Amino acid sequence: IRRTMIANPHTKITFRDPTGHKYIFNRAADIIPPLPKEVLPHPKGVTADDLIFMAKHTDKRRFRSLLTSNLSRMSTKRVNEIQGITGIDLNKRPKDMKWEEAEQIVETFAKMDFMAPPTSGLIPIGKEQIEKGIREILNPEFVATTTRKPKTFRGGVSFIIEAGISYGGDSGRMVGDQRKAEIMRFANRVPLAFDQGSCAITEALKSVDWKRYGIRDLDNAPITVFVNIVSTNVPYLSTGKQSVAPEPDILHEVRQATMKIARNMQKYIRAKKAAKEEEMRSKIFESLVPVIIREAAVLAEKDVPEYDVVLAKVTRRSKYEGVVQDE
Predict the structure, then answer these.
(1) Rounded to 5 degrees, what are φ and ψ at 255?
(2) Which pairs from 65-74 meet CB under 8 Å and 24+ separation?
(3) At what angle do helices 99-111 and 48-57 cross, to 10 degrees?
(4) The pTM is what?
(5) 126: alpha, beta or left, given left = phi > 0 and alpha = psi -120 to 50?
(6) Tens digit of pLDDT for each residue in 99-145?
(7) What mean pLDDT is reported for the chain?
(8) Coil, strand, or helix at residue 228?
(9) Which of 146, 177, 218, 274 is 20 to 30 A away from residue 35, measured at CA?
């Protein structure tokens, strides 16, 4: 439910467990995502199975008509080109298409250049919405999110990668009394709850050099990494649809998205570390400067001078602002 709420911040979920306890997860955003537009499959995203299925369920009289009406970026000129390359009579009835011929046509698709598929069927969550969802559920110290531009894999299947990272608060997962890293994987807003180890998203995240971004050990860091793949044809590894296949283009996009938000997190971690060091430095000076000035006054046989200005200069404390003067 936590993961569903993060990926769908516009929803409100009420859950009652077997003991009767009621849980209410309020929406974090009021913007309802638009409905995706129906788009035709791209030639480079179909298989022989798809062509045979279309042939059995079409009302077209000729296979060439099926191609131009059921596939995007497919013109009469392209159909004639396919017929010339394969030597298959595309004027035949769709139901007369043989499996071997469908495989040959798909192989020809792979060798041809087509315009990129339309992206109107892809509806990403949006980086602002992801941030709202993460803040509502995890209440972190820091959040960074990104939504990448549409890309394609296998030459013609459109997809978008979205990523988010949170640090501190309720980020990560509790293992005993320690918080460890948590990877949240999604496909079209739906959580992928199983087969994490074999998923391309996990593979891409593990390949990132996290030490460069202030995380010495990813597994034991109090962070949550969110990754959502948006596509009309998610390349699942199995029929269980719980892990994404390691397509090179998808791996690359997940890495790029993760490294972008990790750089923002690195700046926050560095600033937090610097602030902590400054705090320790200020406390040391606040304890030593008064003692040194009093002892120096005794040795010089003079009255103890006002030392607020000196203390403000060496500690740079905000509470001494307005006291600091130019030398």
Answers:
(1) -60, -50
(2) 66/94, 70/40, 70/41, 71/40, 71/41, 71/42, 71/43, 71/46, 72/39, 72/40, 72/41, 72/42, 72/43, 72/117, 72/118, 73/42, 73/43, 73/114, 73/115, 73/117, 74/43
(3) 120
(4) 0.76
(5) left
(6) 999 999 999 998 888 887 778 889 999 999 999 999 999 999 999 99
(7) 87
(8) strand
(9) 146
Structure tokens at 268: 């926050």
Helix (H) or strand (E) holding 225: strand 223-231
One-letter amino acid at 23 equals Y
pLDDT at 219: 84
Give the whole-angstrom CA distance, residue 296 versus residue 290: 10
Going by C-alpha positions, the residue among 182, 115, 205 that lies closest to residue 155 is 115
Tokens of residue 191, six digits: 């959580």
Query: How far is it, in rounded angstroms, from Cα 156 to Cα 269?
Result: 39
Mark out the alpha helices in the chain (DSSP H runs): 2-7, 48-57, 63-70, 76-86, 99-111, 127-138, 200-206, 248-300, 308-315
Q: Which has the closest alpha carbon to 154: 254, 45, 256, 43?
A: 45
Bridge partners, 173 (sequence order) = 180
**Are 156 and 43 within 8 A, CB to CB?**
yes
Write down the residue that tokens 């649809």 correspond to.
Answer: 241
Residue 294: both structure tokens together: 């009093």
Structure tokens, 275: 């602030």
Is the pLDDT at 324 greater than 90? The verdict is: no
> What is the rounded distance in angstroms from the CA atom of residue 258 to the CA atom of residue 260?
5
Which neighbouring-strand residues pair with 146? Answer: 163
